[in-house]
Every structure is written in structure tokens, then in C-alpha cells.
């Protein structure tokens, strides 16, 4: 870190699973990267006192509050980091931008298209030098960023097919409790927004093409679940009472990209045996790349221009100092994990703010992903997409 680096005071709203991940990002980024500003974990906001105080003590936040408005109203806060369920993103982000704060907001940008439009407009309206970014963290996994470099530099030729899936299985058990991620008013949608949003963003990031049209199918296998007792990670304890699941647990869709590619997308919490498999394969006219978050330190690469006898997918270990983000970490060959994406996110955000450039992905990028999600929902709701075979 520059010796004379100014402080950038952060207030984080929310302290669940993503709160832990973002805290790790803020804490570690200035210790490994030479940042132009020093993020200070100034204020943690949660709904109730014992909970937020305990989280602040564990993760190293200086002060706590129980109303997010306290953070937005404070003159000394520079950044508002939103890690609450999607239903409150719009209200908090818009107020923060109007108060002149930089905003980092978890994905998906909002629960509805209207909210996402309002958020992108607020980011546009914000004063010069006030920036907003959405937290599609997987762009910052070195192997995904390296895939982007290979594809965008033309190494695999003309991009033709994208195969994107995000597979989890934490809802296979019908008695897994009804957490906020399964309630439409809090989460907006289910696997579609929670996981499909990542798949869409990563596909667009790696290819540099935008999804312009979709055909979708949404399904809910388990319609009723036990109400949540105590939350823990994605699940928690179950009570005797049951409640309605109001979102999808599987989303499938196909899409067209503006650069001519076609894609298939799958987002599911019902993929038995798959824990956190965000996979993306891009097939081009002279090669292909294949990313799998469950093997996040490597990237599959196929060179169709190699002699026939030597063609085959190669596993490139993306652990060398010349690979994206790696030079600040361990000696060559030493791998990274899930939380490093959040460290890279904090680093990129701080650098962009201090260099007065728009951090990516912007709220406009988040809105574009939201348009895709909304189109999938509309398509899945319309019987007309089905060509009946019987
Ligand atoms: C749960 O499905 C979840 O934690 C998502 O909410 C995150 O966005 C994803 O990164 C991992 O899975």
C-alpha cells in the first residue's frame, strides 16, 4: 500500500454469508495489493444489536448500527457495501448514491427489472466521481479472467457456442428449510437470479457479447418446506411449521448473443452431487476454453490449430505470476480459493474509485443481466414457447 494512501471508509449493510466474504475482501486486499487507498472497515449495519455486534467483533468492523440510514447519513463514510437480500438493494443503493457514496451491491442487482432500472438511473445521476459496481465476483477468479483474455484476444477464433451451467444441490433434501433465498419477496427469483445471474454475467464477460434473446423454462420441485429456525450458511435448522416456496429451483434457458454466438444455460439447486459447479465452455472456430469453479485453479484449453495428433483439452494451471491477479499472491504454482475473488473485487473497486474510472461490472451491466433474467421469466411463463410433441 502507498505509504500516504488515504483512508476509504466502508460501511457494510448486512452480515450473512456474503457479509463474511466481503469482510474478508476488505481486510485482505490492502495487505496483498499495493492500493492507492486504504479501505477502513468502519461500520457494520444489521437489523438487531447482539447479532451485528458479534459479527463486527468476529470480522473486525469498528462500529455497528441497526439502521442502514445511519450509514448513508454519516459524512465520513465513503463506500456503502450492500450484502442484504435483493429486496432491499434498490432502496439502499439509491439513497446511498443520492448521498454521494460509492456503492458496491451484491448480485443480482435487484429483485425486479423496475428496481434495477431505477438503480442504474441513480448511478447515472450520481455526481461526477461517484461510482457504483455490482458484485459478480466470479469474474475475478484468475482462471475466469484468463479465459476472458484468451477469448477476447481471438485465440479461439470466432465464438460460436457457449455452454454455461451453475449447479448446486443444497435443495435436493425436501426438508431443507425455507430460507430467504426461497422467497420471492426477498430474493426475486430462485436458482434463476441467484445462480443464473452469475452464469449470464460470466458468459458475457468472457465472450464480450451480450445475450439479446432467450427461451426459458423454470421449475419448482419442492413447493413446501419447513420454516427456518436458526440460519446457518445457506440453510439452518428446521421448525415443525411449513411454508410455501415461491421461487424456482431449476432454471433452463437458451439464448442468442449479439455477436452471433448461441448459448445454453442451466441454473439449479437440484443437481445431486454438484456442490458449487459454475461451468462455462466457449467453443470457437479455432479452439475452446472450459472453466469449472469446482476446479478453479485450472482452465481447460483446446487448440484446434495444433497438429491433429496432438489435439486435446489441456489443463492449464492458472497459478503463475503472469496470470491475472496472481502476482500479489504465493510463489508460482500455489493455488487460490473462493474468498480470493472477494479480495480481488475489493482491490479492483478501490483502484477504479481512486483512478476516477467506472468500476466493472457497473450498474448498467447489472441491469443488462436483469433484463436477461426478466426475459427468461416472461418466456417461461408463456405457453407459446412450447412446441408440443404429443
Ligand atoms: C447460494 O446459491 C450462493 O451462495 C449464491 O448466493 C452465490 O451468489 C454464489 O456465489 C454461491 O452460491
Element layout with pairings:
Blueprint: E1 7-13, H1 17-32, E2 38-45, H2 49-59, E3 63-65, H3 68-73, E4 79-82, H4 89-98, E5 102-106, H5 113-125, E6 132-135, H6 142-152, E7 159-167, H7 184-187, H8 191-207, E8 211-219, E9 224-232, E10 235-244, E11 250-257, E12 262-268, E13 277-284, E14 287-292, E15 298-303, E16 314-317, H9 340-354, H10 363-381
Parallel strand pairs: 1-2, 1-4, 2-3, 4-5, 5-6, 7-12
Antiparallel strand pairs: 7-13, 8-11, 9-10, 11-12, 13-14, 14-15, 15-16
Helix pairs in contact: 1-9, 4-5, 5-10, 6-8, 8-10
What best-fitting shape do the alpha-carbon axes yield? globular
Total strands: the figure is 16
CATH class of the largest domain: Alpha Beta
* Ligands (ions, cofactors included): alpha-L-sorbopyranose
Distance between the termini: 66 Å
**Adjacency order of strands in the biggest sheet:** 8-11-12-7-13-14-15-16
Number of helices: 10
Reported CATH architecture of the largest domain: 2-Layer Sandwich
Report the major sheet.
Answer: 8 strands, mixed
Amino acid at each position: 500500500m502507498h505509504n500516504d494512501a488515504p483512508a476509504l471508509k466502508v460501511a457494510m449493510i448486512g452480515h450473512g454469508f456474503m457479509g463474511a466474504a466481503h469482510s474478508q475482501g476488505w481486510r485482505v486486499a490492502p495487505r496483498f495489493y499495493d492500493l492507492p487507498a486504504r479501505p477502513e472497515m468502519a461500520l457494520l449495519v444489521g437489523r438487531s444489536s447482539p447479532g451485528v455486534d458479534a459479527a463486527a467483533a468476529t470480522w473486525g468492523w469498528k462500529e455497528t448500527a441497526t439502521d442502514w440510514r445511519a450509514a448513508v447519513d454519516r459524512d465520513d463514510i465513503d463506500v456503502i457495501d450492500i450484502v442484504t437480500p435483493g429486496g432491499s438493494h434498490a432502496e439502499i443503493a439509491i439513497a446511498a448514491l443520492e448521498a454521494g457514496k460509492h456503492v458496491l451491491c451484491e448480485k443480482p442487482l435487484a429483485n425486479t427489472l423496475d428496481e434495477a432500472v431505477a438503480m442504474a438511473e441513480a448511478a447515472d445521476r450520481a455526481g461526477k466521481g461517484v461510482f457504483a459496481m455490482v458484485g459478480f465476483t466470479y469474474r475475478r477468479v484468475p482462471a475466469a479472467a484468463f479465459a476472458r483474455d484468451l477469448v477476447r484476444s481471438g485465440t479461439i477464433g470466432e465464438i460460436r457456442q457457449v455452454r454455461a451451467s451453475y449447479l448446486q444441490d443444497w435443495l435436493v433434501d425436501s426438508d431443507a428449510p425455507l430460507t430467504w433465498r426461497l422467497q420471492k419477496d426477498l430474493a426475486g427469483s430462485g436458482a434463476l437470479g441467484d445462480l443464473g445471474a452469475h452464469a449470464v454475467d460470466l458468459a458475457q464477460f468472457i465472450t464480450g457479447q451480450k445475450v439479446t434473446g432467450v427461451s426459458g423454462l423454470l421449475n419448482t420441485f419442492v413447493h413446501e418446506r419447513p420454516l427456518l429456525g436458526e440460519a446457518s450458511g445457506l440453510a439452518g435448522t428446521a421448525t415443525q411449521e411449513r411454508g410455501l416456496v415461491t421461487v424456482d429451483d431449476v432454471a433452463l434457458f437458451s439464448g442468442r448473443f449479439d455477436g452471433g454466438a448461441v448459448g445454453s444455460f442451466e441454473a439449479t439447486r437440484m443437481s445431486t452431487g454438484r456442490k458449487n459447479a459454475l461451468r462455462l465452455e466457449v467453443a470457437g472456430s479455432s479452439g475452446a476454453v472450459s472453466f469449472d469453479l469446482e476446479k478453479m485453479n485450472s482452465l481447460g484449453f483446446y487448440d484446434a490449430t495444433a497438429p491433429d495428433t496432438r489435439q486435446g483439452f489441456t489443463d492449464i494451471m492458472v497459478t503463475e505470476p503472469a496470470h491475472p491477479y496472481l502476482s500479489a499472491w504465493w510463489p508460482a504454482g500455489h493455488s487460490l480459493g473462493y474468498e480470493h475473488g472477494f479480495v480481488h473485487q475489493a482491490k479492483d473497486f478501490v483502484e477504479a474509485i481512486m483512478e476516477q474510472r467506472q468500476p466493472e461490472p457497473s450498474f448498467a451491466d447489472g441491469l443488462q443481466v436483469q433484463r436477461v433474467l426478466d426475459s427468461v421469466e416472461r418466456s417461461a411463463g408463456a405457453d407459446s414457447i412450447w412446441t408440443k410433441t404429443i
